[in-house]
């Protein structure tokens, strides 16, 4: 396939590109922040000085970018340079955007003489580092056959999802389960902790039961040990939540669990925790509990004061923090 381009070396893109390079893929990478390209360089990739250089060198370009605006900027979409940049290239959109955005981008790329595929991935940083992501491939069948070998070093499974934008719709459906699952785990942990349960035994029960999964095992450790280093950040989850809600509203679908999660993640971001891992949502749950306790305690103190005819001072009890 010749040189392959990779643009976007963020939390997920860095390990994905490094795995490609280590597998022997002739890879040329670019990131707007040059320092983020060092892991790919160390793994054997060539670091381009510009996006133009990537497209000059590579007929296939993988994009792992934050949103549609970043994709449009990379492709120079909406400018005369767009057609020259994508003509004769296969553009593979691996990030997460609105499905309708992807549908319109496919039409523009094809009109300009290029090929377009979606390949969003399910998984966070740890699966990305291990090459165990799951890709949801959608688009031109022939282009999909060509691109499959490239996805192997990054993904343990590649699932054909049909035409664009089915790959992204599938990703959003998976994210409904992911977001509600981790939020439920955080709430369960809060419930156990505030009831004074032995949290190591709580983890043992969870990990030994039928609900256990790779994601629950990783996230329960992060919850119990206060490890909020981002694998998927609160800000990222909020954006994914917004994308799911938009697609649901467009189809006239109800999302009651996701709507509740959205409020909790927004509250977590408002606490200044936007760059922490999604397990930090437990802080918003804790804050709700503490606020309710303060309200209830204040009401009860007021009642006692009225009954006793004097003023009582309430000494708060500090809850033990999660480790």
From TrEMBL:
<dbReference type="InterPro" id="IPR002204">
    <property type="entry name" value="3-OH-isobutyrate_DH-rel_CS"/>
</dbReference>
<dbReference type="InterPro" id="IPR013328">
    <property type="entry name" value="6PGD_dom2"/>
</dbReference>
<comment type="similarity">
    <text>Belongs to the HIBADH-related family.</text>
</comment>
<feature type="domain" description="3-hydroxyisobutyrate dehydrogenase-like NAD-binding">
    <location>
        <begin position="167"/>
        <end position="284"/>
    </location>
</feature>
<protein>
    <submittedName>
        <fullName>NAD(P)-dependent oxidoreductase</fullName>
    </submittedName>
</protein>
<dbReference type="InterPro" id="IPR008927">
    <property type="entry name" value="6-PGluconate_DH-like_C_sf"/>
</dbReference>
<keyword id="KW-0560">Oxidoreductase</keyword>
<dbReference type="Pfam" id="PF14833">
    <property type="entry name" value="NAD_binding_11"/>
</dbReference>
<feature type="region of interest" description="Disordered">
    <location>
        <begin position="291"/>
        <end position="323"/>
    </location>
</feature>
<dbReference type="Pfam" id="PF03446">
    <property type="entry name" value="NAD_binding_2"/>
</dbReference>
<dbReference type="InterPro" id="IPR036291">
    <property type="entry name" value="NAD(P)-bd_dom_sf"/>
</dbReference>
<keyword id="KW-0520">NAD</keyword>
<dbReference type="InterPro" id="IPR015815">
    <property type="entry name" value="HIBADH-related"/>
</dbReference>
<dbReference type="InterPro" id="IPR006115">
    <property type="entry name" value="6PGDH_NADP-bd"/>
</dbReference>
<feature type="domain" description="6-phosphogluconate dehydrogenase NADP-binding">
    <location>
        <begin position="3"/>
        <end position="161"/>
    </location>
</feature>
<feature type="compositionally biased region" description="Basic and acidic residues">
    <location>
        <begin position="306"/>
        <end position="323"/>
    </location>
</feature>
<dbReference type="InterPro" id="IPR051265">
    <property type="entry name" value="HIBADH-related_NP60_sf"/>
</dbReference>
<dbReference type="InterPro" id="IPR029154">
    <property type="entry name" value="HIBADH-like_NADP-bd"/>
</dbReference>
């Amino acid at each position: 396939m010749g040189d392959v381009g990779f643009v976007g070396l963020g939390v997920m893109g860095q390990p994905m590109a490094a795995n490609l390079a280590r597998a022997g893929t002739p890879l040329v990478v670019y990131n707007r922040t040059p320092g983020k390209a060092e892991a790919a360089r160390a793994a054997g990739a060539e670091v381009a000085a510009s996006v133009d250089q990537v497209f000059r060198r590579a007929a296939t370009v993988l994009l792992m970018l934050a949103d549609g605006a970043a994709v449009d900027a990379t492709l120079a979409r909406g400018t005369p340079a767009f057609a020259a940049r994508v003509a004769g290239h296969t553009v593979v959109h691996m990030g997460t955007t609105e499905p309708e955005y992807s549908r319109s981008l496919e039409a523009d790329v094809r009109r300009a003489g290029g090929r377009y595929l979606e390949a969003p991935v399910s998984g966070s940083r740890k699966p990305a580092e291990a090459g165990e992501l799951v890709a949801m491939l959608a688009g031109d069948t022939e282009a999909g056959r060509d691109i499959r070998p490239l996805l192997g070093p990054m993904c343990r499974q590649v699932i054909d999802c049909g035409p664009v934008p089915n790959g992204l719709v599938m990703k959003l459906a998976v994210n409904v389960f992911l977001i509600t699952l981790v939020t439920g785990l955080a709430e369960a942990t809060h419930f156990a902790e505030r009831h004074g349960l032995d949290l190591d035994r709580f983890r043992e029960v969870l990990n030994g039961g039928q609900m256990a999964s790779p994601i629950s095992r990783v996230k329960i450790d992060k919850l119990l040990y206060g490890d909020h280093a981002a694998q998927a950040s609160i800000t990222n989850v909020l954006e994914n939540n917004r994308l799911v809600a938009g697609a649901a509203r467009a189809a006239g679908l109800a999302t009651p669990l996701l709507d509740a999660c959205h409020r909790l993640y927004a509250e977590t971001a408002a606490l200044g925790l936007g760059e922490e891992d999604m397990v930090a949502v437990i802080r918003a749950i804790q804050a709700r509990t503490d606020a309710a306790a303060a309200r209830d305690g204040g009401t009860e103190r007021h009642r006692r004061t009225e009954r006793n005819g004097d003023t009582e001072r309430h000494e708060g009890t500090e809850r033990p923090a999660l480790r």
